[in-house]
């Protein structure tokens, strides 16, 4: 049978088919019709994957719920060599490695002054209502890449707000970028402060928060165990821990007065180690949510919070200590309060997206590793620098100065700086000497970084972390389990090995497909994924990509 359709009816049917096709296409779009009102960007300083996985069964608060209900990647790994706080936060914020964003370490050697300075040093911008240290961080002027915060501000034509909070300036500054607000804890005054880069005066909401003097209130308190002693693994009193870290004692309970008679810089420093620091950040975040009206309209905002107390505990007591176990339990509680406050500010879970990661992991205390049979050694960079200086001075018959900052070796001296000595020859001689030392896997002069063979896969991480204006003249990698530190006790991080570079990544909330994702990813993917959730372009120098499986389930 031949079906005949009149022209008028054909037009009507065409319109019907077109309408059905459009409806079908719309139904196939992602569930989020628009960007979340609020994005909560959380970083936990020194939260390595191994540390989190060991403690996960006891986490039932905010952190535990994120792992259970979010898109959880246990195995993200930084692709550059020096796993440190400043480059880690810059990478999370920009989606780029240090070779693009320029933040190679917490400190860099300033050749003009002959001293180590903090990487976000900016003498032209002072701290507001705090103490300005001449060598300390104060602005993002040295951050050479656009951040997620900057991209949001541009994409929303300045309407979207960004507030970043941390105990460390080198964490808050990159998370705020050039155009957000950065606030950090000032150990000299016990207040949250910013610099003249970000504000001309402290806003009323932060003034009101500082007036609460939460750090002063912690002076008379002690850090007690949250759970019964039987629930903690190992021993509280470990011989490998410092005898009296931060003047708070080696075992629980810990006094938080710093040995002082009244609150002051010493007690504020101890406060920053204790779990009370988590609570102060949560309370400051709640003040920012209300004071800035974050999440109150359809223009997306970002609240970034970097918890720094975990890193201070790590350095003093080590990642296996009771102190680390307890601070994670208390962070778990604090994070629950933070997430609840963010949900309320955004008008419910349906309007909130959350991302969580860490800037680095960390090594066990070298002596504790050695007691357990691990071939661990404490490497003093000061002594290594002396040995290298003696070698170069004997070889070239001239004064050559050596400064070691983590994996960077800075060479100087009048003979080298005046051109009397061949710089390339000196740098290659330094690399050759370092390569022969029992603590070294490889060493390479900056002149050979692009051409050096990479049979062990460690030159590529050095390249990604190298920025000519700030990196050393020679780069080296120590052997696994060598803890580079000029302190006789405690521990450190900063190598390309998994205990330092492997961190968790979690996405949760609006637009996210929950699940456990076991593929190894790179933290450069965090900001591109958030860019996709925010329905905007990526920061200009981003190297990562959106994690499509966390957004589509495929």
Automatic annotation (TrEMBL):
Q: Where are the transmembrane segments?
A: none
Q: Is NAD set as a keyword in this record? A: no
| SUPFAM superfamilies in the record | Alkaline phosphatase-like
Q: Name one Pfam family in it.
A: Phosphodiest
**Domain of life the protein comes from:** Bacteria
- Transcription regulation in keyword set: no
* Keyword terms of this UniProt record: Metal-binding, Phosphoprotein, Signal
CDD domains membership = AP-SPAP
Query: What PANTHER family would the database entry show?
Result: BIS(5'-ADENOSYL)-TRIPHOSPHATASE, ECTONUCLEOTIDE PYROPHOSPHATASE/PHOSPHODIESTERASE
Write down what this protein is called: Alkaline phosphatase family protein
Organism, as annotated: Corallococcus praedator
Q: What is the lineage of its organism?
A: Bacteria, Pseudomonadati, Myxococcota, Myxococcia, Myxococcales
């Amino acid at each position: 049978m031949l079906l005949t359709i009149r022209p008028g009816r054909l037009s009507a049917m065409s319109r019907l088919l077109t309408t059905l096709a459009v409806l079908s296409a719309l139904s196939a779009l992602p569930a989020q019709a628009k960007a979340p009102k609020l994005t909560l960007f959380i970083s936990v300083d020194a939260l390595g994957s191994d540390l989190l996985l060991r403690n996960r069964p006891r986490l039932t608060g905010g952190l535990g719920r994120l792992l259970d209900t979010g898109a959880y990647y246990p195995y993200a790994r930084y692709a550059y060599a020096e796993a440190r706080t400043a480059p880690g936060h810059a990478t999370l914020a920009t989606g780029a490695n240090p070779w693009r964003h320029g933040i190679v370490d917490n400190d860099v050697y300033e050749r003009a002054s002959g001293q180590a300075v903090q990487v976000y040093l900016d003498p032209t911008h002072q701290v507001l209502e705090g103490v300005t240290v001449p060598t300390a961080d104060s602005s993002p002027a040295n951050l050479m890449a656009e951040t997620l915060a900057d991209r949001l501000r541009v994409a929303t034509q300045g309407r979207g707000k960004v507030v970043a909070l941390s105990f460390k300036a080198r964490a808050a500054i990159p998370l705020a970028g050039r155009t957000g607000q950065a606030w950090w804890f000032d150990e000299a005054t016990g207040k949250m402060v910013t610099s003249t880069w970000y504000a001309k005066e402290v806003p009323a909401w932060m003034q009101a928060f500082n007036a609460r003097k939460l750090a002063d209130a912690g002076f008379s308190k002690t850090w007690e165990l949250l759970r019964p002693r039987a629930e903690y693994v190992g021993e509280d009193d470990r011989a490998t821990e410092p005898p009296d870290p931060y003047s708070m004692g080696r075992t629980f309970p810990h006094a938080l007065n710093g040995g002082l008679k009244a609150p002051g810089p010493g007690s504020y420093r101890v406060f920053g180690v204790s779990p009370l620091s988590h609570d102060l950040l949560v309370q400051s975040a709640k003040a920012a949510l209300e004071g800035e009206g974050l999440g109150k309209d359809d223009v997306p905002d970002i609240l970034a919070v970097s918890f720094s107390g975990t890193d201070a505990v790590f350095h003093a007591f080590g990642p296996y200590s009771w102190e680390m176990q307890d601070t994670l339990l208390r962070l778990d509680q604090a994070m629950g309060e933070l997430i609840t406050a963010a949900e309320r500010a955004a008008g419910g879970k349906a309007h909130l997206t959350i991302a969580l990661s860490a800037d680095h992991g960390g090594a066990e205390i070298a002596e504790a590793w050695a007691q357990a049979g691990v071939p661990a050694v404490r490497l003093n960079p000061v002594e290594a620098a002396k040995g290298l200086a003696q070698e170069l001075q004997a070889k070239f018959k001239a004064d050559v100065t050596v400064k070691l900052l983590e994996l960077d070796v800075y060479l100087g001296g009048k003979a080298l700086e005046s051109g009397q000595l061949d710089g390339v020859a000196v740098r290659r001689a330094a690399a050759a000497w370092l390569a022969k030392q029992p603590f070294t896997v490889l060493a390479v002069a900056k002149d050979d970084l692009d051409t050096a063979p990479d049979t062990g896969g460690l030159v590529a991480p050095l390249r990604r972390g190298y920025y000519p204006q700030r990196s050393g003249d020679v780069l080296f990698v120590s052997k696994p389990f060598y803890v580079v530190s000029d302190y006789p006790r405690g521990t450190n991080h900063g190598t390309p090995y998994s205990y330092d570079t492997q961190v968790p990544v979690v996405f949760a909330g609006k637009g996210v497909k929950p699940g456990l994702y076991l593929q190894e990813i790179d933290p450069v993917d965090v900001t591109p994924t958030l860019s996709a959730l925010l329905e905007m372009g990526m920061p200009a120098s981003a190297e990562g990509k959106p994690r499509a499986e966390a957004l589509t389930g495929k």
